[in-house]
Amino acid sequence: MAEPFFITVLDDRLAAIRAKVEAFDWSLMPDAGSWQSGVGLADLKRLVDYWLADYDWRAQERRLNMLPQFTADVQGQRLHFIHARGDGSRPPLLLLHGWPGSFLEFEALIAPLVPTVMTSLFPRSPATRFRAAPCPRSDRSRPQNSCTA
């Protein structure tokens, strides 16, 4: 049975993440220059500065929680998905994202698709957050297990 799901990150968790980011010792990070050997140090520092000064997790949490998210147990695994109900007798649509990726890649498609299909499912990969512990690798990697939802 599918159950409604809402993203809720505790304030203590956000504070702990922030403290770790603020405490990072930049002297440990070599500057390899540009992006030839990984993320450019200047770009990474700009991203961290943005995250610390301007990024509003709670605003993102509110936006994400406006999506019709659910969880359900499928063959012993707790799956997290968007279930956008359409109307009419048209066929259902299942959109699967690749790895690495997220079902949020389809976020902009939800509103235009809902009127054209009976229902749309956007499952999150079982290997990503907001689910219970992963199933054994051999089970998770079987395509039929990924499509059971």
From TrEMBL:
<keyword id="KW-0058">Aromatic hydrocarbons catabolism</keyword>
<dbReference type="GO" id="GO:0004301">
    <property type="term" value="F:epoxide hydrolase activity"/>
</dbReference>
<keyword id="KW-0378">Hydrolase</keyword>
<dbReference type="InterPro" id="IPR010497">
    <property type="entry name" value="Epoxide_hydro_N"/>
</dbReference>
<protein>
    <submittedName>
        <fullName>Epoxide hydrolase-like protein</fullName>
    </submittedName>
</protein>
<comment type="similarity">
    <text>Belongs to the peptidase S33 family.</text>
</comment>
<feature type="domain" description="Epoxide hydrolase N-terminal">
    <location>
        <begin position="3"/>
        <end position="106"/>
    </location>
</feature>
<dbReference type="InterPro" id="IPR029058">
    <property type="entry name" value="AB_hydrolase_fold"/>
</dbReference>
<dbReference type="Pfam" id="PF06441">
    <property type="entry name" value="EHN"/>
</dbReference>
<dbReference type="GO" id="GO:0097176">
    <property type="term" value="P:epoxide metabolic process"/>
</dbReference>
<feature type="region of interest" description="Disordered">
    <location>
        <begin position="128"/>
        <end position="149"/>
    </location>
</feature>
